[in-house]
Write a structure and sequence with these properties.
This protein is an alpha/beta fold. It has helices at 20-31, 48-57, 59-62, 75-84, 99-104, 106-126, 161-179, 213-221, 249-263, 282-293, 317-323, 331-344; strands at residues 11-15, 35-40, 65-69, 89-92, 131-137, 184-190, 192-194, 228-231, 243-244, 246-248, 268-274, 280-281, 299-302. The strands form 4 sheets. Strands 3-2-1-4-5-6-11 form a 7-stranded parallel beta sheet, with helices on both faces. It has a two-stranded parallel ribbon with strand order 7-10. Strands 8-13 form a two-stranded parallel ribbon. Strand 5 (131-137), helix 7 and strand 6 (184-190) form a beta-alpha-beta unit. Helix 1 packs parallel to helix 2 (48-57) and helix 8 (213-221) packs across helix 12. The structure holds UDP-4-deoxy-4-formamido-beta-L-arabinopyranose (WQD).
C-alpha cells in the first residue's frame, strides 16, 4: 500500500467531495499537501464549492485537486478515475442523507447508498486499492442504553432506511476484511456535524426545507423562516428538549485527515466516534445561535418527531488515544461560523 505518513505522497479519492463534510475534508487534505480526486454527481451539492475550495487553499494547493462529475454507482466512470490516478485510499461520503425522505423512498436510498458502496469497493479491488474511510453515523447506536457512547456500545436497530444504509454498509465493509485481510477499513461514526468553514466561504447548503436543526435555525436567523420548531419539550433531559453531541465540521474534517495518517500501513477494520463528548439541548442551541446572530430567535414547541432519541453524546477517548485527534471548537464557535456562512451566503452557493 502506498499511503504514507507523508501526505504529499498520498492520493485520495473523495466521493461526495462537494458536499458539506466532504468539501471541508478536501480543504484540510489539500492544505496538508495530499493529492485529492473528487467524484461527485452534484445531485445534492454545487460545483461552485470547487471555486470556494480554490479560494481557501490557494492556487498551489488547488493544483492537486481533480474533479469528476460522476455517479459513484457508474462503474465505467470509476474505472476511468482509477486508471487515470494511482489512488492510495478512498474517503467515501457520497450518499443520500435525508432521514425523512428515506422513509418515503426506501428503494432509492438502499439502491443508491448501498449500491454505490458495492460498486466502489469492487472497483477498488479491481485496481488494487483496499483502504477506505467510511462516513458512518451515530445513528447506528439507535436508542442508547447508556451514555456516553463508546465504540463498544451495541449497534441497535435503525429507525429509518437512511440509518439502515449506514448500519449495513458498516457490516459490508467489515465483511471485506474478514474475506481478505489486506483490506484496511476505518468507520467514522459522526455525531451531529454543524458549523462552517471559518472563512465563511463554505458551509451547509441543504436543498428545500432543512431537516436538521442547525440549518433550520440558521435560516430563521437570516429571515428565510419564521420560527424554530422545537420537536418535544417533555424528554427526560434538563430542559426537556433533545440532547445531541454537535461537532464542528472542521473538527470532523481534521478527524478524517488524522484517520488517513493513522491507517497508513495497517490492515483490518476499526471504528471511531467523532464527537465532542458534550451534550447540548435544542433550547441551548437556539440560545447559542441567538447570541451569535445578535437577536433572540423565535421558537415554538411542537410534538416530538417520530424516531428521535432523547439524548446521545460520544465518548471520544479512542480517537484521542489512537488518532491523536480531539475536537477543538465549542458550541459558540460552531454557531459563530454557521452564522458567518449563512449571513454572507443567505441562499447558500446559489445565492
Ligand atoms: C437534532 C435535535 C431534534 C430539527 C440526524 C440523523 C443522523 C445524522 C444527523 C445526517 C433533535 C431537534 C431538529 C428541528 C428540532 N445524519 N430538532 N427542530 O436527528 O440527531 O440526527 O442528522 O445526515 O443520522 O438522524 O439531528 O439536527 O435533525 O436533530 O427541535 O427543526 O434537534 O428533535 O433533538 P438528529 P437533527
Amino acid at each position: 500500500m502506498r499511503i504514507t505518513t507523508q501526505p504529499s505522497n498520498t492520493c485520495v479519492l473523495v466521493t461526495g467531495g462537494c458536499g458539506f463534510i466532504g468539501s471541508h475534508t478536501v480543504v484540510v487534505l489539500l492544505q496538508q499537501g495530499v493529492e485529492v480526486v473528487i467524484v461527485d454527481d452534484l445531485s445534492n451539492s454545487s460545483e461552485k464549492v470547487l471555486d470556494r475550495i480554490d479560494q481557501i487553499v490557494g492556487a498551489d494547493a488547488a493544483e492537486k485537486l481533480t474533479f469528476y462529475q460522476a455517479d459513484v454507482n457508474d462503474r465505467e466512470a470509476l474505472d476511468a478515475v482509477f486508471d487515470a490516478h494511482t489512488i492510495d485510499a478512498v474517503i467515501h461520503f457520497a450518499g443520500f442523507k435525508a432521514v425523512g425522505e428515506s422513509v418515503q423512498k426506501p428503494i432509492e436510498y438502499y439502491s443508491n447508498n448501498i449500491g454505490n458502496t458495492l460498486t466502489l469497493v469492487d472497483a477498488m479491488r479491481a485496481h488494487g486499492c483496499k483502504s477506505i474511510i467510511f462516513s458512518s453515523s451515530a445513528t447506528v447506536y439507535g436508542d442508547p442504553d447508556e451514555l456516553p457512547l463508546t465504540e463498544a456500545s451495541p449497534k441497535k436497530p435503525a429507525t429509518n432506511p437512511y440509518g439502515w444504509t449506514k448500519w449495513m454498509i458498516e457490516e459490508i465493509l467489515g465483511s471485506l476484511v474478514v474475506a481478505d485481510p489486506e483490506w484496511n477499513v476505518v468507520l467514522l461514526r459522526y455525531f451531529n456535524p454543524i458549523g462552517a468553514h471559518p472563512s465563511g466561504l463554505m458551509g451547509e447548503d441543504p436543498k428545500g426545507i432543512p431537516n436538521n436543526l442547525l440549518p433550520y435555525v440558521a435560516q430563521v436567523a437570516v429571515g428565510r423562516r419564521d420560527a424554530v420548531h422545537v420537536f418535544g419539550n417533555d424528554y427526560d433531559t434538563p430542559d426537556g428538549t433533545g440532547v445531541r453531541d454537535y461537532i464542528h465540521v472542521m473538527d470532523l474534517a481534521e478527524g478524517h485527515a488524522a484517520a488517513l495518517t493513522w491507517m497508513a500501513g495497517r490492515t483490518g477494520c476499526e471504528v471511531f466516534n467523532l464527537g465532542t463528548g458534550q451534550g447540548t439541548s435544542v433550547l441551548e442551541i437556539v440560545k447559542a445561535f441567538s447570541a451569535a446572530c445578535g437577536r433572540d430567535l423565535p421558537y415554538v414547541i411542537e410534538p416530538r418527531r417520530a424516531g428521535d432519541v432523547t439524548a446521545n453524546y460520544a465518548d471520544c477517548t479512542k480517537a484521542r488515544e489512537q488518532l491523536g485527534w480531539e475536537a477543538r471548537y465549542n458550541i459558540a464557535d460552531m454557531c459563530r461560523d454557521s452564522w458567518n456562512w449563512q449571513s454572507t451566503n443567505p441562499n447558500g452557493y446559489e445565492g
